[in-house]
Amino acid sequence: AQSVTQLGSHVSVSEGALVLLRCNYSSSVPPYLFWYVQYPNQGLQLLLKYTTGATLVKGINGFEAEFKKSETSFHLTKPSAHMSDAAEYFCAVTLTGGYNKLIFGAGTRLAVHP
Amino acid sequence: EAQVTQNPRYLITVTGKKLTVTCSQNMNHEYMSWYRQDPGLGLRQIYYSMNVEVTDKGDVPEGYKVSRKEKRNFPLILESPSPNQTSLYFCASSPGGGTGELFFGEGSRLTVL
């Protein structure tokens, strides 16, 4: 069975600091991996995704994530945090092509302080 | 504007009083789904629909019903709501093709007293 673990339910960084949100997955077959972001009082929107090919994927707003099969990880990073990055971030996994069964992690709430 | 629209956005009801949360998308997407979001649990899938008249259970379907009579609409029905269904509900749609990109509505916060 597939599962997603996000380490740290809350992460706090200073404006301008590196953002690192951790995600580890469990899957018996090659997965598709996603990061979604949820701003306050809004629905989720896709930040970036890995399907096949290049393991370093770039998303919107300067975020990127690297798929590391050996570590079963898909950590999200951003070199320099902005105040507008404060949101909740969800890692998700699905079977290859199985978009109807997206499994979400519990989420990590990112706080950015001046 | 491409969007997924849910109504109501906020609702307080009492145990046993049937309610429906509507969901409509204007992107001609084949796939639609309902999720509930609870603190510390992330999003869990309730039901999904691959196309008109095709629906299937997700991970937490108990106490919910859905229907897909038209491509654009996918209402979520709580026949007899209970307090454990107090949650934030999201409808999502996808064009399909295995992209994995879901387009979400803004959410419906339901409280069952």
Structural description of this entry:
- The complex is a heterodimer of chains A (114) and B (113).
- Chain A has 114 residues and is an all-beta fold.
- Chain A has no helices and eleven strands.
- In chain A, strands 2, 4, 5, 9, 10 and 11 form a six-stranded mixed beta sheet that branches. A five-stranded antiparallel beta sheet of chain A has the order 1-3-8-7-6, with no helix packed on it.
- Chain A is globular.
- The N and C termini of chain A lie far apart (41 Å).
- With 113 residues, chain B is mainly β.
- In chain B, strands 2, 4, 5, 6, 9, 10 and 11 form a seven-stranded mixed beta sheet that branches. A four-stranded antiparallel beta sheet of chain B has the order 1-3-8-7, with no helix packed on it.
- The radius of gyration of chain B is 13 Å and the shape is globular.
- The mean pLDDT of chain B is 93.
Number of helices of chain B: 0
Give the DSSP E fraction of chain A (strand runs of 2 or more residues): over 45%
Calculate the terminal CA-CA distance of chain A, rounded to whole Å.
41 Å
Q: Give the helix proportion of chain A (percent range).
A: under 10%
Oligomer: heterodimer
Between the first and last Cα atoms of chain B, what is the distance in angstroms? 36 Å
The largest β sheet of chain A comes out as: 6 strands, mixed
Secondary structure class of chain B reads mainly beta
Radius of gyration of chain A: 13 Å
Name the shape of chain A in a single word. globular
Radius of gyration of chain B using CA atoms only: 13 Å
Principal-axis shape of chain B equals: globular
Derived from helix and strand composition plus strand pairing, the structural class of chain A reads: mainly beta
Mean pLDDT of chain A: 90
In DSSP terms, counting alpha (H) and pi (I) runs of 4 or more, how many helices of chain A?
0
> Uncertain regions of chain A: pLDDT < 50 for 5+ in a row?
none
